[in-house]
# Entry
Amino acid sequence: MTTHFSFLCRTKTSAGTNALEHLPFELSGMGAKKPMVIQDAASRKLKRHKCLIRAFKDSGMTLGIAPAVPEPALSGSKKKPEATAQFIRDMYATYREKGYDAIIAVGKAAAADMAKALNIAVTLGPDALKGTDITAPLNPLIYIPTGVDTVTATAASVTFNRKAFTSPYLAPDQAVIDPAMLIPDDRDSLLDAALFCLALGCEVHALSGNPPARAYAAALVELAAVPLAQMIGSYSESNLKLRKKAEAGWQKQLVQAAVISGYLTDGSRPLLTLALGREISGDSGRVSLGMIMTVLLPAVLETLGRDRFGSLLLPLSGMERFSTVPVSQQPVTAVQTIRGLLNGLHAVTGGHTPRTLAEAGWQRDALTALAADENIQNITRDTAQDVLKCILTHACDGSPVTAPLG
Amino acid sequence: MEAFAEIKPGKRYLTRIYLGIMLWFVGRAVQAAAKVDKEVAKEFENMPDEYTFCLGAFPNGPYMIVGKDAIGRVRYKGGNPDKHDIHLEMGLKSLGNLFTMFTFRESTPVANARDRLFVCGDVPNACACVRVLDIVQVYLLPKPIAKLAIKRYPRWSFKRHTLDRALVLIRTLIGF
Amino acid sequence: MYIPDYFEFCCRVKIVAGHDGLEQIPSLLTAMGSSAPMILTDKGVRAAGLVDVVETALGGNLTIPTIEDDVPPDSDLNVVHRLADVYREKGCDAIIAVGGGSVLDTAKGINILVSEDSDNLMEFTGAGALKRPLRPLIAVPTTAGTGSEVTLVAVIADHANNRKMLFTSYFLLPDAAVVDPRMTLTLPPHITAATAMDAMAHSVESTVMMSKNPLSDAHAREAMTLISKHLVSVIKNPSDKDGRLALATAATMAGIAFSNAMVGMVHAIGHSVGSVCHVPHGTCMAILLPYGLEYNLHKAEDRIADLLLPLAGPEAVVSTPADKRAQAAIDWIREFNKELNQITSGRHATRFKDLKGHDGTPMVPKDKLPEIAATAMGDGAIFYNPEDMDYEDFLMVTEAAWEGVPLDPTRIKKG
Ligand SMILES: [Fe+2]
# Structure
């Protein structure tokens, strides 16, 4: 543990059977009586709000069901910015006119981000969306995921019209995970989410030295590692019924992981797998974000963690295995475990998933150039160029970092 | 684009009727047990006169109200908390939660562990009320179901299991 | 990993920890738009010079309208009302609470009154009476134990009517908990041991309770690991600043774990011994912790077995067969208490029988045990205990803890 740290997660997590049933009680505890429900297109189409209406029976509360948010929404704000702005204007007007006092976002990150932006407008006035510091709690905001996502819906930040807002008060007051609200995700999305959560959790656990963050990260790694190993193990399961059933179980666990991953991406600590992963997967477009982050992970751990991240082996492989490995071998074994997952996935997919950045289509020269890129320096919060170069070149050929820098 | 819709979710009438009956039954059984069972009587003795507690669902019931009257007798006081001075409120956070509990799919301790319960009032008497409700459940329910509803099935005397149980059931039904 | 069918987890407090923790307070206040904090503390904390440390650390940039130290050992309704008036008169806009549970409870009470602009605290008793955020409140704990800086309840005594009022709301949580080892640096070894064992009890009990969940478990495990690693060395070397920081951090982490997963019989009996015989809370926790595990062993064997790793380390896990690990974890806690007893020259007690008051008389006379058992029957912590307890059970456990002998397994009723 380091000699100073700080940690804040303002979001309450509630997860499991009948989670929706608690919502009227929770909202009333926040002084809200009339929530507005914002959904993404998939949730609106499948009428997930009907579950919500059922859970609000006998509560005496009124719900407003908004039209689907325009997609792709804020996270890919290059497209359709007008539709997004128009949606916010319309909903702002309705919220104010009809006396709504809270927002429930249902869906994936698109719905959550829209709700965050709308919450800025309805709490601080629409002009606040042109840019402002958010220093006090906003109106109540609940987020209900309908599936896994590698854009963190629960993060304490949002980008609207290319303006980035970061404040602990932007995070939802509560994330409510109810299995009844889930819409089945396909196997590739589940895999991507598991890899995303694994990489993020491992990096924070190994490198942050921040006990509360490590606690969240340990839970995140455990929640992701178990379904991931199972997914690899039963990749070629051909019985459709069995597969669907298994996928539903993994989804339940991975949605919890995805929600927790947002708590660790509040911008208060640099996350290299995420920053580099976004840059790299965004450019190739061929390989998913979670995949790239996990490919980067061993090099990130070895370069920055040196030999001090042995305790990562515990959430990664469980008490039995952890206890049999000597302290001196714990870091190596942790990295081997991560590589083992990548290699196992490579084998079961018939070589379709990359184990290295080279297999993901990257050339060493391009990566060296990337390490020197000004933009990269910005997003990795001034991580030294030789550190980035060390990470990227080792991730390129998958070789271990034998002589860590500095 | 779909239109914006404002919806007032309705009520679960059948659920409310079922729970109303169950709560009526439990309330009268507490009154009966206070007369028949020494342990229950003792728990109530330690509470102040006119002490009244209520069990129900947030925010609109149904409820059952049980309490002591001015001369210390334990009474089932009906289902309307607004008519009484309530000293202790034990509530499930939703009607659905109460229904899950009264269909024995989740015991009181489990519902409590899952944050589905809230208590407003003084803690020692809340503990006593929970013990009373546990005993009443053992009286009312067949052993396999009662075992699901409480933490530890008590080892009672043969008389308590048979004669006292019959007395509690009769008194509950006819209400004296 | 145990994932319950349904769970809730929440800690809305910003944890700011470090050797320079106190120096972060001005910027925390600025970020919340405050510039005139009231410092609230008690006479003991002030006499120990800790408020001076805080004042120095805050520097000259912050005006502190007033420092109030008139907080009784258990918070009092009249004091809350009086101090709320002081807050208003002096134009304060935040509270920095420096101290333990009662200081923080008082601060929460004041914060309700000044935020809701009320002069009657009674309007806000119970759960959920508060509907909106309160004014800024920063907690600076001065013992590494209670975890009250991250709990959402406030208990305020109405001495005139002889009752205790309970306030429960997420809005009562402090905005930030500032964990700085300078606040615990001067604690004598036996108090360091007792308070750390309180934190240990929070983390251990929370992982055994019915309401445990992946996030509370992760916090608890981190706390246990820090305590078992650092406590002995800090007691041997009290000025070990890094060790002090680790223990203080562990206490806060344990507080987060237990405010979500709750505590059970160890606390039920412990509160009762505290109120009947005035034994310090941490001492009760150290003595009772092994008994709490022993009693619940048949209901929570797996959970107790999982404690062996964070407590005793990987070697102990490898060398103990799976079916012996729960017992080994219990034995480890007993041994740990013995070691603490030795390195505090016997001042860390391992059974109630040995506790002596200032005048040398026994603190827990044997004839008080029935009263202790009866009082424990009214403690809410028992709701969360895996196994049920009646008066007989409470008495049996208390008697064993008084004598310092393990529980007789045949006397534990298993339903
Ligand atoms: Fe405690």
Notes: The first strand of chain A starts at residue 4 and ends at 7. The first helix of chain A runs from residue 23 to 29.
